[in-house]
Structures are given as C-alpha cells and as structure tokens.
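In response to reviewer comment 3 from the previous cycle, which asked for concrete evidence that the modeling workflow produces usable outputs, we include below a single protein chain processed end to end. The sequence was submitted unchanged, and the resulting structure tokens are shown without manual editing.
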Amino acid sequence: MPTRATVLITFEGPDGSGKTTQFTEAVGYLKTSGFKVLPIREPGGTPAGEAIRTVLLHEANMVAKTELLLFMAARAENYHTVIKNAFGEYDIIISDRSIDSSVAYQGFARGIPVEEIKWLNRFSTSGITPDVTYLMDLETPLAALRMKDDLDRMEQEGLAFQEKVRQGFLQLAREEPERFVVIDGNLPVDECSRAIREDMNRRFSEF
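The workflow returned the following structure tokens.
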C-alpha cells in the first residue's frame, strides 16, 4: 500500500472533451491498484456545494463576477471541509474539475482578469494546488458534437466561447508543463485511458 503523503489529482478540459469519462476510469483504476481514493467533483462535493452547483448549471444567466464567486464559494467549502480533512487519510484525492476551470471559463472565456482569479483560487483553497492535472484536449467543433442533448447552462455557450475555454486550458498547460499532462481527446477512449494509466504508473511508482 502507498506510504507517501496524499496526492491531489485533477481532471480538466472543455465540455465534451471526454474529461468525466477519463476521470471515472482513473478512479476505478486507482482503486483496483490498491490505493485509498477519494473522488470529488467541482462544483459540488458538499451540501452547500451541490446547492451552488444547481444554481450555476441550471438557473438563469448571471453576470460573470457572480458566476465566478459562486464557483469560488463551492470550492472553498470543498477544500476546507473535505479535501483538507482527507489529507493523511487517503492516498489520492482525485477531482473532476478544480482551480484551472475557473481560470479557463471565467478568465479566458468571460474576460475576468486571470491574475484576479488565480488570487481567488489561492484564497479559496488556502494555497493547496494539484500535484498533477490531466487535461483532455479536443477540437471545439468535435467536442460540441459529443455533448448530450440536455445541455446545462455552461454547455449552452456557443463555439466561440468554448474555443476560448480550450485555448485557456492549453495556455495554462504551457505555463505549468511539470503539472499538466495533455491528453489527445481525438484518440479512442481506451487509448486515452492507457496514456493516463501509464503516466500514473510512472509518477506513483515509488508508492
């Protein structure tokens, strides 16, 4: 069994990129590999976070700053009531979205200054950052074709918005190549999963 400190993994990517599929597969793989794993999602993960999630994804439109602050409120609740308490209790915490989504969506796509969002991320998480982030990347028109019919509020944004999100994620990956692992979403699902498993095996071989 693992003996080192808890690792925080995040999965990021534009809507329709295959992020949640790969997140779910990774959770199962890590559990069957003998790790004690805590899966979470953003927004959500706590009663308050789930209530905020409903507002963010299904209620009427709101101004960008309101949207950002609601995401941050859900994040603060998650990090301070779930994630902080899980350190030392779990081998791996793995999250479906986290800090980088706010930068990509509310920063690059909505136009709120990125440095302000990064400051709010640090405030909301008390400076906790992911150890590794798997970024699912897929051309925006192809990602749009993959989306389900019953789209949430964020998914209903047009192609121009979604392309800004994608380019935002790619910019973040270029800025932190040691943390980000970019996965080509054009590959078949099993090949994406294999690439992620191989990277995990390499990173966590000392466990």
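The chain has a mean pLDDT of 93. We consider this sufficient to address the reviewer's concern, and the full set will be provided in the supplementary archive.
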